[in-house]
Amino acid sequence: MTDTVPTRPRRAVAVDAVCRDAVDLARQALASVVPDDHVGEHVGVVAEDDRVVTHRFTCLAPGYRGWEWAVSVARAPRSRTVTVDEVVLLPGPEALLAPPWVPWSERVAPGDLGVGDVLPTTDDDPRLAPGWSGLDDLAAASDEPGLRPAGWELGIGRRRVLSPEGRDDAAQRWHTGDTGPQSPMARSAPGNCGTCGFLLPIGGPTGSAFGVCANGMSPADGRVVSLQYGCGAHSEAAAERPRA
Questions:
Q1: Residue 67's domain is classified under what CATH number?
Q2: CA angle, corner 220, sides to 113 and 166, nearest 5?
Q3: Please, what is the end-to-end C-alpha distance for the chain in angstroms?
Q4: pTM of the full predicted structure?
Q5: CB-based contact 180:174 (threshold 8 Å)
Q6: Per residue in 2-20, pLDDT tens?
Q7: Is the pLDDT of residue 226 over 90?
Q8: How many structural domains comprise the chain?
């Protein structure tokens, strides 16, 4: 059992009076590095440590509304001389900040790729699994239960194939998309795709829930559709008969 060392709460630090009063010194330090018209009023002092404080000034630089200049000053023990440690620009409570950085691979959304764009996949992409040839090893070639790799699929020359996670991800996307059962088109359709003669069945694990629409008059023509999707171009939609 590993003993944990309790952490001591940080003690409160009092604002050093000598450093607190060094407002003019802090402003002079700012004047040496930024234009005078970029520095506004003194807005406060923060104690950083014993005999170390930070003076904050409003930033008037264009494009930095809500930001503040921070000038840290300090003095040695038993000394009355205050020196400048650093001058930085920091965001204030109302500052406009850039959104958190997100990797490019996570920013790209379906439909973003254009002509010539390339979206590489990583070697450990969980949506993909090795594309077994059927002759790779005994486990892949055997028909005995339990000897094939989990999620085994014949690759037919493909280095990788969809993993179970990749299939589930696609199925969820199709099910909740605009060719799924909850779309406005499906909810107003006279029948679902599972009973439509224009449905092209697909094989594999997803064939029990999805197919491909082959009706040129349908808004889903050529697309994967849920068997519970439907549209007004259903093969069995009956024409309304004129009233006598």
A1: 3.10.450.630
A2: 55
A3: 89
A4: 0.52
A5: yes
A6: 455 555 566 678 899 999 9
A7: yes
A8: 3
